[in-house]
Amino acid sequence: MGFRKDFLWGGATAANQCEGGYKEGGRGLANVDLAPVGPDRFAVIAGEKKMFQFDDEHFYPAKEAIDMYHHYKEDIALFGEMGFKTYRLSIAWSRIFPLGDETEPNEEGLKFYEDLFKECHKYGIEPLVTITHFDCPMHLVEKYGAWRSREMVGFYENLCRAIFTRYKGLVKYWLTFNEINMILHAPFMGAGLYFEEGENKEQVKYQAAHHELMASALATKIAHEVDPENQVGCMLAAGSNYAYTCKPEDVFASRKADRENYFFIDVQSRGEYPAYALKEMERNGINVVMEEGDLDFLKEHTVDFISFSYYSSRVATTDPKLLEQTAGNIFASVKNPYLDASEWGWQIDPLGLRITMNDLYDRYQKPLFIVENGLGAVDTPDENGYVADDYRISYLAEHIQAMRDAVDEDGVDLLGYTTWGCIDLVSAGTGEMKKRYGFIYVDRDNDGNGTLKRSKKKSFDWYKKVIASNGEDLTNE
Length: 477
Description:
Blueprint: E1 8-12, H1 15-18, H2 41-45, H3 68-82, E2 86-90, H4 93-96, H5 107-122, E3 126-132, H6 138-144, H7 151-166, E4 173-177, H8 187-191, H9 201-226, E5 231-238, E6 241-243, H10 248-270, H11 275-283, H12 294-300, E7 305-310, E8 314-316, H13 350-364, E9 368-372, H14 390-408, E10 414-420, E11 440-442, E12 454-456, H15 458-468
Parallel strand pairs: 1-2, 1-10, 2-3, 3-4, 4-5, 5-7, 6-8, 7-9, 9-10
Antiparallel strand pairs: 11-12
């Protein structure tokens, strides 16, 4: 048994966390450029603190990141050496349409990604492209209010038509929105939403979500028209919620927490707003404005596969005395006493990945693709930049084994697996460089110092062996 013969092993990055070159090639300013490192970061990404341009008091790590804009050939060669079958990356919207509302795309931006995709194919690597990994041109934020405006659907359509047409034959796997449920948790980072005083935030978030869902369905329609070979997926930040106890109230709390995240995927995969979501919006006085034909359109253009990130499971309870929060990945959760945690407080739960895979596959009966999974840790390199990251190998091996169990023993249909941050990059949650995920060490610190030199960690050769054995050999020797 084991993984399918054409299983897509690889790694994942996001343009705003690795690319840099924020002013080069005609690129415009984006929301993701304006998230500073430090104590103000969360207020900015949550849409609570207005930061629409750079200031002198903050450091903005996305400006240069790890400068993959100038290093992509070197980086892709290293991915090729590991044997990657796929490389998940994202397109910076403001590279293609610097303002976002132009009628014609920016040729320099289109050419950059064309060259990058051709470089991937040189090594037999299939690009898996996220159309929007939190990016939104700042001009669209300031002029239209970002995704709160229905006009955004048309601007997104222009982006999709430009890239689907230009990259036909170079890219066949697409994701519409990265972690679409992030709009509820980090709305400025996730969708360019900044809230004015007195605004009904929930109303704005769910209206913006409807526009994104319409845009996602439109992208799916266009992708299939441009090239019937195209496969389009949705993407959610996943991790099943456990009930803290078998008390029925806790069990129901865990169901409700799961539903909050499944809501978006229910629409993208099943093509309709679920009854529980409509009831929840009604209770909260949320009135999502729709145009005639929206619901039919959503039904007609559902995704081909379900992709997701998984870092940890979560726990739900109704007991206020137990609400000690973990530090995890923007999604707060009650601590699970049965699990260990990473240096950043994320709880490590390989079996939780298998549980999550089963939950998603049972719910949607569509192929799954794990597009983010990994361990953020402080790596200490020797004088040659080598890191003996056995802790990372152990984490990944346990998760790949759980993944294999879900395929072999549970019959889950899994297309592929891309580890998060296959090369060290800027953390989306904290903006730090010291929170590293990669098989490749990049000499850069939290303040932007360093040579940007790339060097292989111990996990580099380990993952190479995993890929070569199609996931059969997970030993660390």
